[in-house]
Design a protein that fits this description.
The protein is an all-alpha fold. It has 2 domains: about 60 residues; about 140 residues, no CATH class. Helix content is about 80%, strand content about 5%. Strands 1-2 form a two-stranded antiparallel sheet. About 15% of the residues are buried.
Length: about 210
């Protein structure tokens, strides 16, 4: 019996070591792959922006595909990508645009303030903030309703069978609603952050231009 016990312990330890080793190896390969991808992205971006300033001008098709390759998203117009490239943190700007673009309107004639909010409801900051709070409140309410049967059962307010019966309805319905509310909150928050960064940059540039003229 002692031999069987030690055999089981040895097998358990060996399995754990092999499992942790596999996790470590997978993580290391992922890290090495990410580093290699980052180096390739850096090389491509460096070459592309160098060629962008060369004469004769780059062909419009190559220019468009180059900007979309930089963004990693062919659905974003090159003019928007070029605008986002002027930001202090273009990587974060691209991420925020990809998330919040459904709330954004592009006006290329506005130069440094090309991105704004579409629709009359979101014109003011107060309305946008109110919309964001509404989405967060909707998420919290939907999530609470989804898991409410479980907690009511824990508190012995309802029976287990009743909790299961209610959960069949509340979990799929209200967890989906919670997901949609969370998605909208994330999108409007990203759009608000991006427009704020853009406008702050535009304000700084206008002050610098004004000082230069003086």
């Amino acid at each position: 019996m002692d031999v069987d016990l030690w055999t089981k312990i040895a097998l358990g330890i060996s399995t754990s070591i092999i499992g942790f080793g596999g996790i470590w190896f997978t993580k290391r390969q992922h890290t090495l792959g990410a580093r290699a991808a980052s180096r390739e992205e850096y090389k491509f971006a460096k070459d592309f922006f160098s060629e962008l300033d060369e004469e004769p001008p780059m062909h419009a098709f190559a220019r468009q595909k180059g900007f979309q390759a930089i963004a990693g998203d062919s659905s974003i117009p090159p003019s928007i990508i070029q605008h986002l490239m002027s930001f202090v943190d273009p990587v974060t700007a691209l991420q925020d645009y990809a998330i919040g673009q459904s709330y954004l309107k592009h006006s290329p004639d506005l130069q440094q303030r090309q991105l704004g909010f579409g629709g009359p409801f979101l014109v003011t900051h107060e309305r946008r903030k109110l919309w964001f709070i509404g989405m967060v409140t909707g998420f919290m309410s939907s999530y609470f309703i989804a898991v409410a049967p479980y907690f009511l059962w824990l508190l012995r307010i309802i029976s287990a069978s009743t909790a299961i019966g209610w959960s069949v309805i509340t979990v799929p319905t209200f967890l989906y609603s919670a997901f949609m509310f969370a998605k909208e909150a994330r999108q409007i928050r990203a759009a608000m952050r991006l427009v704020k960064v853009q406008n702050d940059k535009a304000d700084r540039d206008e002050i610098i231009e004004s000082d230069d003229r003086d």
